[in-house]
Input
Amino acid sequence: MEKQNIQSRRIISLLLSFFIALFFGSATYLVAGYFGFFNESVIYNSLESSDYYPKALEYYTTSTQTLTVLYGVDDSVLQDTVNSVKFKIDVDNCIHTSFYGKKCAIDTQSMESKISTNMTAFMVAEDITLTTEVQTGIDEFTKMTLDNYAKSVNIPYFSYYVNVKNKADGLILAGTIGLALIGGFLISLILGMYKRKLKALRYIIYSTITTGLLCIIVPVYLLWTKFYERVQITPNYVSQLISSLIFRGLWVFVWLGFGWLILSVLLLYLKQKWMYQNEKHIEN
Amino acid sequence: MAVYLTIPLFFSLLIYTLVYLAIEPVVNAGVAVASMVIARETPNFLEDLTTIYQDKNLVERSSIPLSEVVIPYIGTHYANLSVERLGVTTPVYFGDSDRILLAGAGQYSGSFLPGFKRPILISGHNLSVFNYLQYLTVGDKISLKTNYGLYIYEVTGIAIHNATDPAAIDLGKQEEELILYTCYPFQRLSSRKYDRWFVYAKRISGPDVK
Output
């Protein structure tokens, strides 16, 4: 009878251990999802590491040069209208405001007046008479350049990302707390089943090791396949940003997985130490 | 001690399997969406334009095997377009991105290469490389020289269409028509150009690709 009870207790403990790993693993995935993908600082880091700012600025410059060719004006009309510092500030501002659900407002006043000054100088140099049609052309060129700038400082598809993030935020918080509480409750059940808590600890260690492995195996496989390097979205600098974001995000999973494994090693060490102390205590 | 590895490994595999089975439809939908934006190979993000064009003397032939034709990548200068009467030559790139159109004329990648008996659609900016389109007249000869053949086309028509007019271009045609187009009007700083200037030409010589 006693033997049967021990056997049943083992099976139940293993089952509980399995479910603890499932709940802790899910909670860790949610936390990793937040810190790896939906965190504002992750976006800035990915922008830096993927060289987003200079590439996006170059893209803006090329598309604006196309406008100059279309309207038959010299590149000089765009001189000193934008620089890398202003561009970076505007991109960061847009991210920050978009993150909090606000519409990004760019101050293009200084750009507009600079284009106007440059355009006047160009017309004088080229001896172009200001007719109504030419004025309409200038107004259209200026508007298209400013619109192009406003578009360039907004990360393409970022609004979709913010939508997903806003929906996921609540779910991540509630899910993490809920799953952690259920996991904690199951741990207390295992501990309650054993008079000698050290015996229960082994099942908790199974759970923590499993959680660590869950967070490591698939993300490491994905990092190994480097699938994120094959992302192809135009413009190209967006592909590289997404690629960098996925790379960094997957590493967050791996680091959290290692955190669980370190915790497991620590628990294992404590278990061995306490066992040794207990044995000594019994001997004495 | 091995039990601390085997049991968690077994648990992990079991959880992965269960989760996969539970969310299989979502995974499949995700994979389908991802396959649209994930290429088979790592894309080359170098946006520098390249050239395969060699200005060499070509032997006249009525046909050439497909194996001799190097299909250009996007951004590759693969031909030169000339109008002898006007004394102009324009490099033709495969693709028609902003960067390409700043460097020369660009062939829409959904149209065909010369010699394939199908339409060829080439665009260029009206105040730079394709400014001379306004001076072309019906009967003018346009040559398109590639590494595999020299193709001569004769202008059959000139028309102005709205940029969105579907009647302007028929890429499904079963004949080799060279279509050149640019923005219209041609004046500098004129208001936004909603119209396009089209030049249509039929092939009169050059080898067929077989």
